[in-house]
Amino acid sequence: MRLWSETFRDGGLMPADHAFAEIDPASRVRLAGNRNPHLAWDEVPNGTESLALFCIDPDAPQDASLANVEDQALPLTAPRGDFYHWSLLDLPTAMRSIAAGQFSSGITARGKQAPTVSWPDSSGTYALRQGINDYTAWFAGDAGMGGDYYGYDGPCPPWNDERIHHYIFRLYALDVPHLALPERFTGQQAHAALYGHILDEAQLVVAYSLNPELALTLKK
Predict the structure, then answer these.
(1) Are 132 and 148 a contacting pair, CB within 8 Å?
(2) What CATH architecture does domain 2-219 belong to?
(3) What SS3 state is found at 11?
(4) What Pfam family does this protein match (any one) (predicted)?
(5) Distance of alpha carbon 51 from alpha carbon 59, whole angstroms
(6) What pLDDT sits at residue 120?
(7) Residue 93 and residue 51: Cα distance in Å, rounded?
(8) Residues 53, 179 contacting (CB under 8 angstroms)
């Protein structure tokens, strides 16, 4: 299976318009376009019943108390874990691309509230399921931003992080039309439900940083 994007090249830099936040020289960061990137795929194997798409940041700090602290760097060696930015399930085999901004454009305070999104084609309209992403936990307890964040919300790595963050867009071909999950599910739950159903997979990796010094190295 083959996966590509017109938004970025594999191993390249995520454009700020597709991130949750971007660098602001005056205030460190500001909210950004938060548009999901364009993605397209082909060479889907025979026997595929549906596809599943994930966006995961494996460089997220496990200790959030170290993030975005004035006069303190988040060390390169700090423990890291997965942060799920997107889980999109039940993609039909007829679907071969996602347009930039199709499922996310702009910041929605307290999160986008649609657990399903529609994809129409000539044979009908399909309901695609979206999991809650990890901004749900990140903003928990925040009066202005707390809520269930369904679907895609883009990169917002800590601005004091010494590590460049990488975002893995991974597409799976599955041998089942639906995964056994509750209506409200996390990216971790969706990823675990893939076990035993994967026929093939493809991925793209893109980098992003809100640390001004690291961001300059990415642009070179």
Answers:
(1) yes
(2) Alpha-Beta Complex (3.90)
(3) coil
(4) PBP
(5) 25
(6) 85
(7) 7
(8) no
Residues in the chain: 220
User: What are phi and psi for residue 154, nearest 5 degrees?
Assistant: -80, -170
Residue type at 180 in one-letter notation: A
Pairwise CA distance, residues 41 & 202, whole Å: 9
Decide if 77 contacts 94 (C-beta within 8 A).
no
Domain extents in the chain: 2-219
Which residues, including other chains, have CB under 8 Å from residue 2's CB and lie 6 or more apart?
Answer: 41, 42, 43, 202
Contact 15, 216 (CB under 8 A): no
What are the average pLDDT values for consecutive 10-residue runs of the chain, which has 220 residues? 98 97 95 98 97 98 92 95 98 96 96 92 84 97 95 98 98 97 97 97 98 88
Is the CB of residue 118 less than 8 Å from the CB of residue 127?
yes
Residue 130: which of 110, 111, 114 has the closest Cα? 114
